[in-house]
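== Fold encoding ==
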Amino acid sequence: MKMSMTRKQWYLSGFVAFTCLAATAAIAGPIENYAPVTQQRLENPEPGNWMLYRRTYDGQGYSPLDQITADNVKNLTPVWTFATGVVEGHEAPPIVNNGVMFVATPMGQVIAINAKTGDEYWRYKRQLPDDLFQLHPTSRGVGLWEDKLYLATTDDHVVALDAKTGKVVWDTKVQDYKKGQYMTLMPLIVDGKVIVGGSGGEFGVRGYVAAYDAKDGKELWRTYTIPGEGEPGHDTWQGDDWKNGGGSAWMTGNYDKDTKTVYWGVGNAAPWPGEMHPGDNLYTSSVLALDPNNGKIKTYHQYHQNDSWDWDEVEAPMLIDLQRDGRNIKSLVHPGRDAIFWVLERTPTKINYVAGWPFVATDVWKGIDAESGKPIVDPDHKPVVGKRVEFCPSLWGGKDWPSAAYSQKTGLVYVPANENFCGGFTGEKVPLKPGELWLGTKPEDIGLKAKPGADHFGELQAWDPATGKKVWQHNFPKSQLFGSVTATAGDLIFAGGTNDRNFRAFNAKTGELLWEQKTNSGIMGMPVSYEIDGTQYIAIQSGWGVDAQRIQDALVTNNIGIEANVPQGGVVWVFALKK
């Protein structure tokens, strides 16, 4: 279940970090010759930099660097490490701009580091309120624009920092954290607009996506993910259900620079049992196509209607140009939390359903309507009030927020999936109290279990989105897989995500495990690749916590009996080939 350490507990727990190299402590001095970030650079990033959440606006998580290959990755070795000084889940990619690395961590911290040497330039640490209850105390990174950084905070502010010094330039309140509103995402920057979305669906909030002026923090527009009275889609709600209907937008969107469209994922409806909010419940469990200039909804696709399983679909779909069924398709590809691998077509005015298939076993869907793209629900596995209902996969789904990747060399999509996990709960009507969890069930009633006879749980899968065929699969017998994956032009797939603390490299064509390195903690974060002075580096944050730890406690240890002591504590690891 989604519970969290309090701030006081963090301080009392202390911090222990293991590194095989000494963590750097030297101060690198002032940042000189910082390269301002422009729209042109974001749209056409240099191969050696990683300046967006998934490196490029299309969200593919692909690096064109190819110095490190399937033939020589066995020679990959740590070159420096850096302890962040805090615990809990470290989920942000290290962001690199011309030799400067920016690392966001839990506790509202940003560290600027020399990406070649590991020396610290500066450190910003936000003073968080003592009464802040952080359901997901993490950060997924900082956005870059001109000479500033932008951080979305768990006490629901957007903060602009001077990239050279770390000093606060402006600080804008977005919502009220005391009502359960908070943010964990990396802001998306488009044409000087800082675009964010809020978390808090489990608190009965009304989700939104909002944009702020990068210069002064002024709010430019706000689009609610649940339409209000008189807006298209409002009729998919009954009564006042829309006012507290969830629909959080807590992951970074992707951007089509040709059509100037932002694609943003939207979370589940609240509370969980669908009969407590009858109707399709637009735009929950959907992808929205937004105009970044004014926030207008151009079109949408709802992955599944009347969500009852806590299946957020907040990871934005990847933008991939496919050859499928004899025609070119500008696609949106999304391996969903609802266990369906979605292939959609993006057009200027509409998102069309193309294909969908289960990538892990599910008993919730009987199929997908070929015309509408709506999944057909098996009512026996849809939670209701007053009766316990079981379903597969579990509430963490076939794939949670950790990102899939697409290789432009192989044409394959690589999915960090979880198989053989099931769940269930009894729906219960409870009154909404601002700032308190509002799930529609008792937290202690949520059951997680493994399928009888299951011989593995995590799966790294490779799919051909043009044909719908699985090309290879690597199984993890004793662990979930809860970490993002990254593809490189060296025919490699990098991934952490397991309870054994290993960071791994796989052959992108065959799935063969080629290299692994034990780290200080478990890895939830996103691997990145960058280049300085002709050397290619691979970087990752190791730091276990949040949902990966909750899965470990609730299912892998307590239910299956697989013990795994995964120590917490954040460390940035950077690797290169032995010289």
